[in-house]
């Protein structure tokens, strides 16, 4: 048995704002969420000072201390996004959450970095367990977001932690889609999150993959641009509520879009360097799953990290499959690379692009790198009457994902 899967709720937080209307305003007005992280100047050897943080985010006042004692910032961001999506779907507090027919598929690159830092320092530097609380591990464990969401919303269905770096959010949505499609659950809370911390930025800085144009934060990063010099790490969270079409219709839910295709694969060749062939293969897999031809995709949301090898490999794979017909854009020029959250944030935007009828163009793309694929790079906000949108993400470890959404 296979079922249609629809999106009935979509909410997120990112460097552009703490809800979709604010994020929409930032995208449509081509506003950058990147700024300088002055506190990072104390880290010896760190070349970048650029970061993209969710503005003015604190624990919501209606979240009790008991509810959040095992939550780091990454889980708090996740809970806030989930609360917004469930509210929009009309399922916040609904009995289905505790019925066993609702599950969670959600991930992040790691647990909360400050908790990891505290735990490691106490044990390995201070050589003492004194001062480590029992909640510390709950904040640092790799599946902290998924587990905390289950506890926070009393969800009793299946739980799928997706901790696959930059595909954490998109795999979360894809695996949730499969669970609903095959009748294993009626509703899934799906997505990904990331918490900004210098530890995350340092990984890319060591690889010479970060932007070091520290005096021009709003002009970085520059996906697909000839003059790009690297990525900017950001933070955020996004949640899609996925639901069986019949279940949604029966309760009179407002449907935003339909998930019609998903594929994930692995390069199996190199942990860091992307592979054009497997990038194309994952897009082809999503097309097969959706029973669509390349010519039926009306927009491509690109991963577009603003790294040389990533941009060239991805754009070449995309051009080889789609040519120059569909508009292509990356959102990372606006909000930086939000790592485990990016696949979910970009999927959320793709859903709203279809639902609201507009597209966000690439930010900071002045001159396309001639080594990139020959694509229809969108550089401005425009109206959109297309029926389908593909959202692609590619992660360290050679993990690739492709999601396809359609108007209902």
UniProtKB/TrEMBL annotation:
Protein name: Beta-ketoacyl-ACP synthase
GO molecular function: 3-oxoacyl-[acyl-carrier-protein] synthase activity
InterPro entries listed in its UniProt record: Beta-ketoacyl_synthase, Ketoacyl_synth_AS, Ketoacyl_synth_C, Ketoacyl_synth_N, PKS_Beta-ketoAc_synthase_dom, Thiolase-like
Family: Belongs to the thiolase-like superfamily. Beta-ketoacyl-ACP synthases family.
Example GO biological process: fatty acid biosynthetic process
Gene3D superfamilies membership: 3.40.47.10
One GO CC term on file: cytosol
PANTHER family: 3-OXOACYL-(ACYL-CARRIER-PROTEIN) SYNTHASE II FABF, POLYKETIDE SYNTHASE-RELATED
A Pfam family: ketoacyl-synt
Keyword Transferase: yes
Keywords: Transferase
Keyword Transferase: yes
């Amino acid at each position: 048995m296979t079922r249609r899967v629809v999106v009935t709720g979509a909410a997120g937080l990112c460097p552009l704002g703490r809800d979709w209307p604010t994020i929409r305003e930032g995208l449509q007005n081509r506003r950058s969420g990147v700024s300088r992280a002055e506190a990072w100047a104390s880290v010896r050897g760190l070349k970048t000072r650029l970061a993209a943080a969710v503005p003015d985010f604190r624990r919501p006042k209606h979240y009790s201390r008991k509810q959040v004692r095992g939550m780091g910032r990454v889980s708090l961001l996740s809970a806030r996004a989930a609360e917004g999506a469930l509210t929009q779907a009309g399922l916040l507090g609904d009995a289905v959450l505790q019925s066993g027919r609702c599950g969670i598929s959600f991930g992040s690159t790691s647990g909360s970095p400050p908790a990891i830092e505290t735990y490691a320092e106490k044990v390995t530097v201070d050589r003492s367990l004194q001062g480590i609380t029992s909640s510390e591990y709950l904040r640092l464990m790799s599946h902290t977001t998924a587990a905390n969401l289950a506890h926070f919303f009393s969800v009793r269905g299946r739980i799928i932690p997706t901790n696959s770096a930059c595909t954490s959010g998109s795999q979360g949505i894809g695996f949730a889609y499969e669970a609903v499609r095959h009748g294993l659950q009626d509703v899934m809370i799906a997505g990904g999150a990331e918490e900004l911390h210098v530890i995350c930025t340092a990984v890319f800085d060591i690889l010479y993959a970060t932007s070091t144009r520290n005096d021009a934060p709003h002009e970085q990063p520059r996906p697909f641009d000839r003059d790009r010099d690297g990525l900017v790490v950001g933070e955020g969270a996004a949640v899609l509520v996925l639901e069986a079409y019949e279940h949604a219709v029966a309760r009179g839910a407002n449907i935003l879009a339909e998930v019609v295709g998903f594929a994930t694969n692995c390069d199996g060749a190199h942990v860091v360097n992307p592979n054009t062939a497997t990038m194309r293969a994952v897009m082809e897999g999503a097309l097969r799953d959706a029973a669509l031809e390349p010519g039926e995709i009306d927009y491509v949301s690109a991963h577009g990290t603003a790294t040389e090898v990533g941009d060239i490999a991805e754009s070449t794979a995309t051009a080889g499959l789609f040519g120059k017909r569909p508009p292509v854009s990356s959102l990372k020029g606006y909000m930086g690379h939000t790592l485990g959250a990016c696949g979910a944030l970009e999927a959320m935007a793709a859903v709203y692009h279809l639902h609201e009828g507009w597209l966000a163009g690439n930010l900071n793309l002045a001159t396309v790198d001639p080594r990139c694929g020959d694509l229809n790079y969108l550089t401005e906000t425009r109206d959109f009457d297309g029926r389908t949108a593909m959202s692609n993400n590619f992660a360290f470890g050679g993990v690739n994902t492709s999601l396809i959404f359609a108007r209902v």
